[in-house]
Amino acid sequence: MQLVRNPRLVLLAACIAAGLTGALVAAERTSSAMANAATAFVNSLSPEQRQQGVFPFNSDERLHWNFIPSEAFPRNGLTVKDMSEAQRKLAHDLLKAGLSQHGYLTAAAIMDLETVLGDLEQRARNAGQQAEEMRRDPVRYYFSVFGVPSTKQTWAWRVEGHHVSLHFTVVNGSLVASTPSFFGSNPAEVPDGPKKGTRILAAEEDTARALLMALDATQRTKAVINVAAPNEIATTNKVDINPLSPVGISADSLTSSQRELLMRVVEAYTSFMADDIAADRLAKLRKAGLEKIAFAWAGEPERGKKHYYRVQGSTFLIEYDNTQNNGNHIHSIRRDFNGGCGRDLPPEHLKAVAH
Known about the structure:
- By secondary structure, the protein is an alpha+beta fold.
- The longest helix has 26 residues, at 101-126.
- It is globular and about 60 Å long.
- Helix 2 (20-43) packs antiparallel against helix 9 (275-288).
- The model is unreliable at 1-26 (pLDDT under 50).
- Strands 1, 2, 3, 4, 5, 6, 7, 8, 9, 10, 11, 12 and 13 form a 13-stranded mixed beta sheet that branches.
- The protein starts with 8 loop residues before the first helix and ends with a helix.
- The protein has helices spanning 9-17, 20-43, 47-53, 85-98, 101-126, 202-214, 217-223, 256-270, 275-288, 324-327, 347-351, and strands spanning 54-55, 78-79, 142-146, 155-161, 164-171, 174-177, 181-185, 224-226, 249-250, 294-299, 307-312, 316-322, 330-336.
């Protein structure tokens, strides 16, 4: 069954109109909910589990992240598999605290898709075809808490595994970083079986293609930066990133209806977050200048073909790549150029962190 998105552009626009200050105050509510959920989760852990899932805030582990299978990128943290049922509920409560309902359902669906991927790969091997030898496990996802969850101090948390990597950093009770946020899907569209036709990241693909098809020939010449799509997102799992080039076509070269389509692409990514976090992201985006946002596409325009796109503003970057498995394997990410993984915190914030 395909996930259905309920557009919230009107609500988010209203939140933006309230101003950046209002969005930040609202974001404190989510950071408080995350602190409460993380405290309950940590308190439920045994001493051995805490050794696995709780780290000092300044640990290098906080910057150790990826979206590829754990066989290729060994991870630390406490897996869902190693939790009791009660602890699993508390871990998912923490995930729900940082995400919208749509975002939480997307994360849960991607985790569950590991079962589908494992079945597809096993059938390929049984048929004598080449397939990856990876352990596909929907409970092999790692939860980590950095520092002591608090409504007044600096701390962070992360959940990640194959095709999911989400990061949140809280300073003085306010959320200051919620990137990188990565979602992937393999397959992008389930080819057969009980879940045939499922497209978990359909909106991320369809909104961008709708914008591309709405461009006239001259505009498309500027937007399409390469006839072939790259094999992977350019920023991969780098901690620090810089703006990419070429930038494609900027919003000030679009018509009003085309700019609306561009904002739908942006909203496909902001809508994963809790509403107040999404509003804060859009408020910062507006403050930095909507006209500075640019859209670039590479690859073929037809659905089912290999393609890539990016949306870049002065403060953020969205990357999407669907080239692996003959264009049926999505990697998508939203990054901030400053503060990802809680990097570059002011010295006064770091002084408040227990070492």
